[in-house]
Amino acid sequence: MDFLQRSLDGLLEAGPYALVGLGLTLGFGMLRRVNLAYGAGAMLGAYLGSWLHVRLGWPALVVLPSVAVATALAGLYVQWLCFHDADRSIGKPQRASMTVSGADAREVVALASSFAVWMQLEQLSVNLLPRHLNPFPDFASTQEWTLGALGLRPDRLLMCLLAVALVLGMTRWMQTSRTGLALRATADHPLAAHLSGLHVPALQRLGFVIACGLSGVAACAVLALEGQVTPMFGMWMLMKGLAAAVIGGLGHLRGVLLGAALLAVVEAHAQALLGPLGRDAATWGLLLLALLWRARVSRISATGGLHA
Amino acid sequence: MLEIQGLACAYGKIEALREVSLSAKAGEVTCLLGPNGAGKTTLMMTLAGILQPTRGSITFEGESLLGLSPAQIVDRGLALVPENRLVFPALSVRENLMAGAYRRKDRAAIASDIEHQLDRFPRLRERIDQLAGTLSGGEQQMLALARALMSRPRLLLMDEPSVGLAPKVVAEIFGIVRKLHAEGTSIFLVEQNVHMALKVAQHFFLLQQGRVTFSGTPADLAEDDVIQRAYLAGSDHSRTAAVA
Amino acid sequence: MRDALCASEPGVGLVIQVVVLCLVALSAWLLLRVGRISLGQQAYFGIGAYVAALLTTVGQWPLLAALLAATLAAVACALLISWPLLRLPGLQYAVATLSVAELVRLGLSGWRHQVPQAGGQMAGPDGVHGFRDIRWLFEHQVGQTEYMLWALLALGLTVVTLLLLARTRLGLAMQAVGQDELLADSQGLPVQRIRLLASALAAAVAALAGGLYAHQLTYIEPAIFDPMLGIHAVGYSMLGGLATPLGPLLGAAFDLGLLEATRLFEGWRMVLFGTLVAAFLRWRPRGVLDEALLQRLSDRWRALGLRRSPVSAVPGPSRDSTLTS
Q1: Chain A: residue whose CA lies nearest to C285
Q2: Does the beta-carbon distance from C325 to B13 stay under 8 Å?
Q3: Which superfamily, per CATH, for B2-88+153-243?
Q4: Chain A residues in contact with C39 (beta carbon < 8 A)
Q5: Residues C134-151: tens digit of each pLDDT
Q6: Which residue, A112, A110, A120, is CA-closest to A43?
Q7: What pTM value is reported for the model?
């Protein structure tokens, strides 16, 4: 019974992870790049939200879209500075070499660039609100419900439902809308997209900005549970987002749900056995295992593209 | 219809096209021949707007194509069927076709055009909801062609459609090229397969090391042994001599 | 750890810490040379620090021997870890190295091994609180200035070794792998093994840095080797230049110079540094001291200095004419 309760508790924690992983996996799907500034960007948005809430007294309903917009703008900045050449990643490596170094080196440069921005945004956030703890508009935490012998918390459940709704909604929109088709085509094969008349740079920007906006929404949801934001939040988001996204498969939108669920349950048990250090170790450990396993399973691991 | 004058294009410091001048007439199938490394794909990519030339001019129906983005070039009425197909592997056949029509706004006409393409390529109809990455080489070629046609181009560019395909499939593709020509589509074709090209094209150019070294009709081609010299292999030429 | 430097006053202690940072930067640089970005060199820094500290406090080893053993331990770990990791493509590899480094940090955070010392105190790693009382320098009356000179010597030797390495066949092979993996592979170079060697070397350098740092500071804690250390190490290399071991040194000097020279930038240092790195990566991806600059400098050097053979006085053939279209 203990095992089940712990698993259920763990599963309920998956909501935030899925929300956080969604933006990262979407961003990767669009640009074939891991955005290391992901957490920092969302944190900047969250800090701004906190500032708006505390200084200007804005209510939660207005803070949420503000955070999403701020994070989306941060994403625009990251895309401009770090990932601007993503539309040159062609399906086949071109030996005739239009660039100084090969495609691999461009990935490296983009990654390095994004952590440079991580540094920038993290420090900008902390400068905005120098205190360690900053209040964030929150939901009132309700008491536990009971289901037979198991207990469950409705606010966590709500988060999970929100995650599922967002992921499935996003997936559906991608599959059925014209813009969604364009985004998927651009993600799948940028060169073919050029030739079909799609405006690739604009679409990549759009997809990436949507992903970052989603991360802002995720940040709000998560912080609403905590009621406060700290400077550790950026790293936390990156860590959990990466884990959930990689386990579910980078670029696989629905996979993020699976990744988040697995992550959350394993973490819950790890924490019970090894304490809070164990919990974080489980995150990194699972991430590592997922990376190694996926590389073995699919040779085309770095092709990117968006998949439902 | 299409006029290229003194075109040069380089990858960094490596000049792939040195001085290319050629033209394609409306309603005709114009073919560009040339061995590997001559610069044919570079030329096609430049026409499609993917690469920017360093010198020269490209005029289509009187208007310059220089500096336009690939999307704008599709708007002007050129569509490229690229070398190695380049379909969207994770999208279905239907979605590939829809992507090809992206610049168009007329929803109803797009739907009927899709049907039209599926009539033309029955094998694609069979696989309409299959992912394009799972199609065979020949089917992907047809899909790439159909996708390009979805944008209703006035000039269709084809880069080595026969590469890597079985002879039977190649014959099928060229049959379709002939049919398209009969329907009035202008086609600018790049090919290594002289044999097949002779069956469909009205005018030939030869590209060697970034320069156009020959321009003429199929008859001129059969007479001149320039092809033999260019390809350094007698077999292609002797077969064409037998056919012509 | 980077920010611990903010608080230190100018002087010998600072120099040693700069040396240490330069070594970590060189460690990241070695992997960048073979075309891989590692966000986890801080792990070997930590391993080196802990092993060296353990050996000198609990084992009562002499410092030099302990440092040597620490580097060997790090090399062993690197080989073990990098073997599966290097099979991953670049992006995944970077994330994997970050994961490994965090796992190492968390592991060391959870490790308690207290051993009673001569004076009745306990010494050894103490979980999150780290490893305290690393007193070897005090016990053996090694002054700060003397230690600083040893540290500078260590850095100098490392740089010289790397410069010499660049001229050997192995060095050229490493450069080839870093420039174009596919091409190198098709030429028959054992890409995987070369990368493995580079990671082993890199781990050794990082471990040396860790050992030096732990003894200067007299304590080491897991919080010191967090991701930002590794990220700064890579940042220094990318800013300073990938073509020569002097590149990361330039990057480190620049950042620390920015910090020390102007207290104005307090609180904005990372914003500025990050901006510079990102800007450079956009417009000059190989850093300040990139291959092109080095080629120009060496050409000018040759034109000025040696007039041995007429060939060197004539401008060399342009690289591209050797390639036909």
Answers
A1: A109
A2: no
A3: P-loop containing nucleotide triphosphate hydrolases (3.40.50.300)
A4: 115
A5: 777 777 777 778 888 888
A6: A120
A7: 0.83
